[in-house]
TrEMBL record:
UniProt topology in membrane: Multi-pass membrane protein
Ranges for domain OmpA-like: 245-363
Cellular location(s): Cell outer membrane
Primary residence: membrane
Signal peptide extent: 1-21
Family: Belongs to the outer membrane OOP (TC 1.B.6) superfamily. OmpA family.
A Pfam match: OmpA
Domain of life: Bacteria
This protein's name: OmpA family protein
Organism from which the protein derives: Shewanella subflava
InterPro entries recorded: Bact_OuterMem_StrucFunc, OMP/PagP_B-barrel, OMP_bac, OmpA-like, OmpA-like_sf, OmpA-like_TM_dom, TSP_type-3_rpt
Length: 369
């Protein structure tokens, strides 16, 4: 029997997310920082025999993206500076680490222009030890986790200065097993957020006019409404009339079954073909694809030809008996390639010996609110 199932194809568009200065602040920002870094173990912990002259000054550059006013992600590059010491084997160590970092940041505004921050992430570091005035050189790379906290002050909507503390773990040189360190960083960073704050909208005074009544509540007053009593869920134009769109639709009008090794249409199927023909006459802009199928019995090449004959037989009835123009009908055979029932059973073979009719076209449809 013909299945009267309506399948509507929804056509939607994707608008890329983009912010501009005219729309307000963007989620993107860039910045850089300077500070001092203290590797552990270090001289302050008295684990080294003799301390050298450190170059503890660290720096970083970064870019960030804010998911909202409280949460974002940062990508950057950091140089943690260098430190020198003489170990108990009387060898000078000259150690430093640098590399890319990726982390999550969270912000908590607690006063006008002030905010707290917390961060966590990982640094893909390269650590080097220029031992004995670079006569011995050891280096390795790895991933070191870090956490941090800070306090920031916004000079403007774009410009922010923040004091930062970060703790790095597992800054290890494991290739030669010469270093196993942690690190503490203190510094200042300056960041710039792109865009500009949207100007405050000033509401225009509303002048009430007693005669301006909107009887059908469509947003257009009666004196301008050319289409009174429009449905409340319809989108309307400036004159109060329903806005329409052309929507692409697809109608699956079901399947016709055939006897084994036959392209002859059963008499019981003509009623379904007549329903299809009547629909085509009521919708002259629509077209139909007649798809023929076969059961998986016999040779595939023969079944392909048989499925084409079945499709052609239905197409000829539509054209010759019901007067549907041939340029609105397309017939195609799929053989055994698209079964709707699996298995090698009589019932499965019966279901797969079929015709399916797919009608396509466009319909005028009201745009809803």
């Amino acid at each position: 029997m013909m299945k009267n199932t309506l399948k509507v194809v929804l056509l939607t568009s994707m608008l890329p997310f983009a912010a501009s200065a005219a729309e307000g602040m963007t989620p993107w920002y860039v910045g850089g920082g300077l500070g001092v870094n203290n590797y552990e173990p270090n001289c302050d912990q008295k684990t080294m025999k003799v301390c050298g002259e450190d170059d503890p000054y660290a720096w970083d550059v970064f870019g960030g993206y804010l998911f909202n006013d409280y949460f974002g992600v940062e990508l950057g590059y950091r140089d943690l500076g260098r430190a020198e010491w003489t170990d108990y084997s009387n060898k000078l160590n000259d150690v430093g680490a640098r590399g890319m970092n990726l982390g999550l940041v969270a912000f908590y505004p607690f006063a006008d222009k002030w905010s707290l921050s917390a961060e966590a992430g990982a640094m893909n570091y390269l650590i080097s030890n220029k031992k004995q005035w670079n006569t011995e050189y050891y280096s390795d790379s790895g991933v070191a986790p870090y956490v941090g906290a800070g306090i920031g002050y916004n000079f403007t909507d774009n410009l922010k200065l923040a004091a930062k503390y970060r703790r790095y773990e597992n800054l290890d040189e494991e290739k030669w097993n010469t270093l196993s360190m942690e690190s503490n960083y203190w510094g200042l960073e300056l960041s710039y957020r792109f865009g500009s704050a949207a100007p405050t909208a000033v509401a225009a005074p509303v002048v009430a006019v007693a005669a301006d009544v909107d009887s059908d509540n469509d947003g257009v007053v009666d004196r301008l409404d050319k289409c009174p009593n429009t449905p409340s869920d319809h989108k309307v134009d400036a004159t109060g009339c329903t806005v329409y769109e052309m929507a692409t639709t697809k109608h699956d009008l079901g399947g016709l079954l055939f006897a084994n090794n036959s392209a002859v249409i059963n008499q019981s199927s003509y009623a379904d073909i007549e329903k299809l023909a009547n629909y085509m006459k009521k919708n002259p802009e629509h077209t139909v694809i007649i798809e023929g199928h076969a059961s998986n019995v016999g040779k595939p090449a023969y079944n392909m030809t048989l499925s084409e004959r079945r499709a052609n037989s239905v197409a000829q009835v539509l054209e010759n008996k019901y007067g549907i123009s041939s340029n609105r009908i397309k017939s195609v055979g799929y053989g055994i390639t698209k079964p709707i029932a699996q298995g090698n059973t009589p019932e499965a073979h019966k279901q797969n010996r079929r015709i399916e009719a797919i009608v396509t076209g466009t319909e005028k449809r009201a745009v809803l609110k």
